[in-house]
Amino acid sequence: MKRYCLLVAVMVVFIPFVAKSQKPATTSSDFKLTKPNGQPMATLININNLSMWVRADGWSGRNPITRSAGTIFPWGTTNVIFQDGIIWGGIVEDGLRPGPKLRVGGQKFSTGTVPGRIISKGVAEDPNAPDVRIWRIRRDYQTADLTQDAAELNNNPVDEVTEAQIQAVRQQYEKDWNEWPWEKGAPFYNNNDNGVMDPCEAPGLANADQVVWFVANDLDEGSTFSAWESPRIGIEMQVTLWAYNRQNAFDNIIFKRYRLIYKGHEATPDTSRIDSMFIGQWSDSDIGDVQDDFAGCDSTLQVAYGYNSTTLDSEFHELNLPPPSVGYVLLQGPIVPDPNGDARFDFKTKRGFRNLKMSSFVYAYPGLQKPDFIPETRIRRKTFNNLNGFLPLVELKPYVDPEGNATKFPLNGDPINGRGWIDGVLQPPGDRRIMINAGPFTMALGDTQEVIVALVAGLGADRLFSVQVMKHHAKWARQLALANFELPPEPQPQEPSLPKHFRLSQNFPNPFNPGTEIHYELPVERHVNLTVYNVLGQRIKTLVDEVKEAGSYSVTWDGTDERGQPVPSGVYFYRFDAGVVSGTKKMLLMR
After folding, report:
1. Where would a tag sit more exposed on the chain, N or C end, judged by fewer CB atoms within 10 A?
2. DSSP state, 461?
3. Whose CA is closest to 143, among 114, 104, 174?
4. What is the average pLDDT score of the chain?
5. 88: closest CA among 221, 249, 227?
6. What is the DSSP letter of 387?
7. Higher-confidence residue: 27 or 351?
8. What does the alpha-carbon distance between residue 182 and residue 47 come to, in Å, rounded to a whole number?
9. CA distance 31 to 43
10. Is residue 235 within 8 Å of residue 260, measured between CB atoms?
């Protein structure tokens, strides 16, 4: 039995750039969801309020079926991210080219990695081999309702999902569970610490409810040049994504662990190293309509985020929802030597090292890019400058705040209170790309680096409240990382006792679809009236209107009115009246 550390937190529940249709094409347009033998090459991590596509070559956040935005929040609504990826760069001296050379890699709109691990120097797995694919597991696959899964994976409405599609998803979960590739590096619960997944041990990590894993590499020079105009390095990238379905703030978070192993190509000497290396989590965050977005960062929380510039976003407004906010939290940076340090690595303490923090935040906006005439190193140099906290230009040019000061943390103000440098002061609203960076560090041949990032989202009563909620969820992610990703124990059952006070609790879940539960407590017998109202103050439905004895009660509202007809998405209020005691709370229904 694993021992858990208590996580203490307070949950708050709250009721050239172009249009999206013209987003840059990818060089991976021939990528298939499955191989001819049916093995999956793309999947979803979607067990909570966030839903994100990911492929076995590292192409992430984008829908491989429709080629459109592929990260949805809240689930069942519309997009918050068009595409994201991880980017690295450094100065490499490895015998492939004379002298130290700048190289970059990773994934943006084009992908510089291909599926499969590196077996030995310069030798990678065959991307077409049946065991080179993507894996996804969830612990409750045998009993879970997989209708949502089947709908998203087949790009169908929920009401059009067939039983055959549901069973196909369940069978794939079972297959992935039984074929979990722990030998390649996929995480598992190694209870006896022997490094082998024994029959009594299970796949997974951090007590997560859903886990996705794949491995890719940059040995295909056609891919690295196409994406980055850069030679290969010999980097193996192992990626683990995990999420929780716990009916709390963790329902708005996807955790991502990137593990980079420097294995080299066939000409890499044993003395090879990568100096001045940086790694960045890049994202094209599109909050609904792409034309009205803002970006920001919070260097204290180590967060890069996107939010809406206006009260109403056209796409979310159609759903009767305010625009949400989405961000990335650097939870665990690369490690560097420090004789007095204690770093976190592989969920363990590594003495004599420390984890690097966010070294810079960068963003791109319409009109930033300009032509240059250095074809071979153009993309490499721009990308490396960006990883170092400078503008994505060939020349070394810093971001400059409205007062004329150079900074590596632009847009580090407070949009909620309108303080500091916030987006909109220097550039108008529009498409935004963001990246949170960490470095520099060095990798010798055979070294492994590990970075953990959390994708967090928040939905509040308006666009700025959504930023506040997103940052609140970012703090939850940070607390879990500080607790070594060990969740608190399940609440222990207690002997029933009569309440000592009148109490009306926040509905749960919230936001909700299709139903939500409202809990209240009575220390003495009272006539109770519990009624739902809309924002106009019109009575929608009476849930309770009778005398109740002292005790604890729960009642469910299924999102219908007195006639049993479904009500539209939006904000609703429920009022509790027990004679001398009354109260009102807000809730959010999302269809």
Report:
1. N
2. S
3. 174
4. 90
5. 227
6. H
7. 351
8. 22
9. 13
10. yes
Question: Could you tell me if 459 and 14 are in contact, meaning their C-beta atoms sit under 8 angstroms apart?
Answer: yes
pLDDT tens digits for range 298-320:
999 999 999 999 999 999 999 99
Alpha carbon 108 to its chain's center: 16
Q: Which has the closest alpha carbon to 436: 256, 228, 213, 224?
A: 256
CA distance 117 to 273: 20
Band of pLDDT at residue 93, cut at 50, 70 and 90 = confident
Q: Which residue's entry shows tokens 């997974």?
A: 204
Using CA atoms, how far apart are residues 395 and 408, in angstroms rounded to an integer?
Answer: 16
Give the neighbor-by-neighbor strand order of the sheet with 551-557.
Answer: 503-504, 516-522, 551-557
List the chain domain ranges.
20-35+47-130+211-482, 503-589
> What local confidence, expressed as pLDDT, does residue 38 receive?
74
The answer to whether residue 390 scores a pLDDT higher than 60 is yes
**Is the link from the previous residue into 440 a cis peptide, with omega within 30 of 0?**
yes
φ, ψ of residue 313 in degrees (nearest 5): -105, 135
For the segment(s) 503-589, the CATH number from 3.40.50.10490, 3.40.50.300, 2.60.40.4070, 3.40.50.1000 is 2.60.40.4070
Supply the pTM of this predicted model: 0.80
pLDDT-derived band at 551 (thresholds 50, 70, 90) equals confident
CB atoms < 10 A from the CB of 38, how many? 11
With helix as H, strand as E and coil as C, how does 132-149 read?
A: CCCEEEECCCCCCCCHHH
Reference 460, options 74, 15, 11; nearest CA is 15
Cis-peptide into 514, omega within 30 deg: yes
For residue 180, what are the CA distances in angstroms to 132, 171, 173, 334, 491? Answer: 12, 14, 10, 27, 31
Is residue 296 within 8 Å of 415, Cβ to Cβ? yes
Q: From 574, 587, 318, 306, select the one nearest 466 (Cα to Cα).
A: 306
With residues binned 3-state (H G I as helix, E B as strand, rest as coil), the percentages for the chain, rounded to 5, are 15, 35, 50
Q: What is the pLDDT of residue 499?
A: 79
Q: What is the mean pLDDT of residues 545-554?
A: 90
Burial 551-568 (b: 16+ CB within 10 A, else e): eeeeeebebeeeeeeebe
- Render 244-265 in DSSP notation, one character per residue: --SSSGGGGEEEEEEEEEE---
DSSP 568: P
CA distance 81 to 68: 10
